[in-house]
Amino acid sequence: MQVLTFGNECLRQKALPVKKIGPEYIKIAGELINALHEQKGIGLAGPQVGLLERIFVIHVGEDEPCTFINPSIIETSQETGKYEEGCLSIPGMYADVVRPEKIKVQAWNEKGRPFTVEAEGLAARVILHECDHLDGILFIDRISERKKNSILAKIEKAREKQKLQELKA
C-alpha cells in the first residue's frame, strides 16, 4: 500500500461505511498495519492509501496494533490538551492541535467483532486523528489559519524544489 500525500483528492473525501466485514478485512488490516510500520507511523486510515472505507489501524506504544472499522466516537472529555501532531500524508510537517484528553469509541475489528474502548492521552489523540481522516479532515484543518498557511507554503516550496531536482536529473 502506498501512502497518499497532501493534494491527493482521496484525502479530502468522506469514507463510506463498511457494509459487511468479511475475511478480506483481515488481509486489508494486515496490509494497513504493514504500511503503518514501514512508514514508522502510529496511525493509518483507509483514505490515506486510497481506500475510501471507514477503516483505520493504530499502533501506539507497547500495545498490539488495533483495527477500527466503522468507528463511532460516543464520548469525549471536556478536558482538552494541546500536542504536536504530524501525519504520514503530510510528511515533515507538524503543529500543535487541541483535542479532548479522553474518549470512548465503538467500532468493529477486522474479524467483525464489535468492541468499545476508552482511550486517553496519545491513544485518544491518534484515534481522533484517524477518525478525522475518515471524514476528509486533516490535522492542518484544526490549527490556526496563520499556522496552516505557513505549512501550506512549506509544502509548496518543497514541491517546487522536488520539481527542480527532477528537471536537473
**Shape summary:** globular
Helix content: 25-40%
The number of helical runs is: 3
How confident overall, as mean pLDDT? 95
Any idea what the CATH architecture is? Alpha-Beta Complex
Map the helices and strands.
Blueprint: H1 24-38, E1 43-45, E2 55-58, E3 66-76, E4 80-87, E5 90-100, E6 102-108, E7 114-120, H2 121-134, H3 145-168
Antiparallel strand pairs: 1-2, 2-3, 3-6, 4-5, 6-7
What does this entry show, briefly?
The protein has 169 residues and is of the alpha+beta class. The chain has helices at 24-38, 121-134, 145-168, and strands spanning 43-45, 55-58, 66-76, 80-87, 90-100, 102-108, 114-120.
What tags apply to this protein structure?
globular; alpha+beta; 30% strand; five-stranded antiparallel β-sheet; 7 strands; Peptide Deformylase
